[in-house]
Specification:
This is ABC transporter substrate-binding protein. By secondary structure, this protein is an alpha/beta fold. It has 19 helices and twelve strands. Helix 1 links the parallel strand 1 and strand 2.
C-alpha cells in the first residue's frame, strides 16, 4: 500500500532501494484549524515519488475534505518503521493509526489488546463491501475485524528477457524446466536463482513461501494452516529437502557460502546485469525494479513454476503487506477510522497510486476496466490475473501466526548451513504452530479453489 513496506517490512528491500532512507518526520497538509483534532500516522515509502503521491492525494486531500479531524503523518525510515511501531505500541504509545506488515503482525497487537476491534467502523463505512472476501476474512481475529488491509500483492518470478534470449532459455513452468534453466545458468557462470538474507533476515521467508506454494500447493498449505495436516508431514519435509539440495548445488544465491552475504539489492543488480538468471520475490518490487534496469534494459515477471508433482504451475501466493489498525490508546479513534476509510474509499485514487508509482494497492473489489490507461503493462497484468485465477496460495507473513512466522525464517538459516535437517526443521515448525493454533492465534485462511 501507500506506506508500504511492502512486506517485510514490505519493502524489505535491503539497503538500497531504501538508499538514503528519507527519515523526514514531516507533516502533511496545511496548518490545522484550532477546532481540528489530530490523528497521528507513521509511514514509510520506497521512493520519493510514492511519498509525494500519498501525501498529496491522501493526507493533504483528506485534511482539506474532513471536518474536525486532521492527519499528521510522520515519515520514518523504511527499514525501521516496523520495529519503531512495535516498540511504541507495546509501551502503550505510538500513533493513532497503527501500521503492521500483514495480518500476522496485526494479530499480535490485537491479542495483546493494543488495538481495537473495528466492526463498528466496518459497518459504518461498508468495508466488507469494498474489500475482497479473502482479505476481509483474514483480517478478523476471534470473529472481529481488527485491521484493514491497504496493500496486497503476490510473489512471482522476475527475469531479464535479454538474458533469457541470449542463452536461448524458456521461462520455466514445470520443475523439469526450472531445473534445466538452473543447470544451464550455473554452467554459464550465473547465479540461477537470486537468494540471500544479508541485511534482512526475513528475506528467507520470501523464498520459503515460493517453494512451499509451488512444491506442495495451496491445498496442502491450507490443511496445515487449519490444523488438518501437520507441518512435519512428508510433503513439507520433501519440499524443504528439495530446496536444501538446490541450495547445495549453488542454484539459490550461488550456494550456502554466499547466501548470508547476498542482499535483495545485489540480486536485482545481478538480474539487470545478466549475472542472475531468475529471482523469486514479491511484487512490492514493482515500484523499484526500474531503478536497476537502466539504459533501455527491461525486467519482466512470470507466475511461479510448479515445483512438485500434481501442483499446477502459476500459483499466486497472496500477500497483504500493509494493514492499518487503531491504537487502543488513541483519543480520536473515530477520526482514525475516518482516515483509514479514506485510504480505501476511492478505487480510482488507489489505482492511480499503483499506476503512478507501482505501489501495491489495497485488495479492493474493482473491475479490470478500472485500471488507468497507460499503466505499466507488467503491473496491470498481475492485478488483472489474480482475480481471474483460482490458483491462489498463501504468503507466510499474511497467514502464518507470529511465532511460527519468526521460526520459519530464523531457523531456516540452520537448514541452509546444514546444522539442522529438513525433517527437524519441519518438526519444530509444527511444534511452534500447534501452540499458536491452540491459543487461537492463527489468521483465518481462505479455502483454496484449485
Amino acid at each position: 500500500m501507500p506506506v508500504n513496506l511492502a512486506r517485510r517490512d514490505f519493502l524489505k528491500l535491503s539497503g538500497t532501494t531504501v538508499a538514503a532512507g528519507w527519515a523526514l518526520a514531516a507533516c502533511g497538509g496545511s496548518s490545522p484549524s484550532s477546532s481540528a483534532k489530530n490523528v497521528t500516522y507513521w509511514a514509510a515509502f520506497a521512493t520519493p515519488d510514492s511519498e509525494k503521491y500519498f501525501r498529496q492525494n491522501l493526507v493533504d486531500a483528506f485534511n482539506k475534505s474532513a471536518k474536525g479531524v486532521r492527519v499528521k503523518m510522520d515519515v520514518k525510515q523504511l527499514m525501521t518503521l516496523g520495529n519503531l511501531t512495535n516498540t511504541a505500541v507495546a509501551a502503550g504509545k505510538g500513533p493513532d493509526v497503527v501500521y503492521a506488515d500483514g495480518p500476522s503482525a496485526a494479530l499480535s497487537f490485537a491479542k495483546s489488546s493494543k488495538t481495537v476491534a473495528l466492526d463498528e467502523y466496518a459497518t459504518k463505512y461498508g468495508w466488507q463491501d469494498k474489500l475482497l472476501p479473502w482479505a476481509y476474512e483474514v483480517s478478523k481475529i476471534d470473529g472481529k475485524l481488527h485491521s484493514v488491509p491497504v496493500g496486497y500483492g503476490s510473489l512471482v518470478l522476475y527475469y531479464n528477457p535479454d538474458t533469457f534470449a541470449t542463452h536461448g532459455w524458456k521461462v520455466p513452468t514445470t520443475l523439469a524446466e526450472f531445473e534445466t534453466v538452473c543447470a544451464a545458468a550455473k554452467s554459464a557462470g550465473l547465479i540461477p536463482v537470486g537468494a540471500g538474507n544479508s541485511g534482512y533476515k526475513a528475506q528467507s521467508e520470501w523464498y520459503l513461501t515460493c517453494v512451499l506454494n509451488a512444491a506442495v500447493g495451496p491445498k496442502a498449505i491450507h490443511e496445515a494452516l487449519t490444523g488438518a495436516r501437520p507441518w512435519d508431514d512428508k510433503v513439507f519435509v520433501d519440499a524443504i529437502t528439495m530446496f536444501k539440495a538446490q541450495i547445495d548445488k549453488g542454484w539459490w544465491g550461488g550456494g550456502a557460502d554466499r547466501y548470508f552475504t547476498n542482499t535483495d539489492t545485489d540480486m536485482f543488480t545481478g538480474l539487470a546485469s545478466g549475472k542472475v538468471a531468475m529471482y523469486m520475490t514479491g511484487t512490492w518490487s514493482f515500484d523499484s525494479a526500474d531503478t536497476f534496469f537502466t539504459g533501455g534494459k527491461k525486467w519482466d515477471w512470470a507466475p511461479l513454476p510448479s515445483l512438485g508433482d500434481g501442483v499446477l504451475p502459476g500459483v499466486f501466493p497472496l500477500a497483504i503487506g500493509t494493514t492499518l489498525s487503531i491504537n487502543a490508546r488513541s483519543e480520536n479513534q473515530a477520526g482514525a477510522a475516518e482516515f483509514i476509510d479514506y485510504v480505501i474509499a476511492d478505487p480510482k485514487r488507489m489505482l492511480g497510486f499503483l499506476a503512478t508509482t507501482g505501489t501495491n494497492p489495497p485488495p479492493l473489489k474493482v473491475s479490470a476496466d478500472a485500471y488507468p490507461a497507460g499503466m505499466d503493462e507488467r503491473v496491470a497484468r498481475l492485478y488483472k490475473a489474480i482475480p481471474e485465477t483460482t490458483n491462489l496460495g498463501y504468503a507466510s507473513w499474511s497467514f502464518v501466526p507470529p511465532k511460527t512466522d519468526t521460526y520459519l525464517y530464523t531457523e531456516f538459516d540452520k537448514v541452509v548451513t546444514g546444522a539442522m535437517a529438513p525433517a527437524d526443521f519441519c518438526a519444530g515448525l509444527q511444534k511452534t504452530f500447534a501452540a499458536e493454533l491452540a491459543a487461537g492465534a492463527v489468521p483465518k485462511p481462505f479455502a483454496p479453489e484449485s
